[in-house]
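I am still getting used to backbone structure tokens and would like to learn alongside you. Label the sequence line and the structure token line clearly, so we can match residues to local backbone shapes. Go ahead whenever you are ready, and we will take it from there:
>
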Amino acid sequence: MFACGADQGVMSDWKRLDLLEHGIPFSILSPDSSKVETIDFANIMKDVSIKKGDDYFVQIFASDANNTNLSEVKAEQLKEVKEEKHFSKIIEESDAGFIYESKKDSSTVYYGFRYVRLQGTKEYILQNGFRGFFSEDQARAMFKAVAPESGK
């Protein structure tokens, strides 16, 4: 319950951000005045980054879906994360995503998330940005911000 309360405090001033103009056909929650950058990799993949300060950094990777089975795509993401050098454990899981813990060393623990959206023939992998270390509260807040229930 404590984590949920912490999320609401962090997210209280976040607004709905429509990403359609960046080629992403849905919205997420983000802090006001977040910076959005888009990199298009020769129409194979699109990388949309939404960043505000050191506390919020969401990356969305959009590509043609090779698989339209949500549970299988999520399982692929789980496998990928579990193979990372510093992966420690999964701390929360939903049908479409998960939050995980990583330990760089005994004193450096950080958190990340993955969330999968399949729409039509497209696959969207939403995750924390590659640069930076996030606390559990920050990772939980970003995870909630990218869930469809939050972004409507």
In short: Confidence is low (pLDDT under 50) at residues 1-7. The longest strand covers residues 108-119.
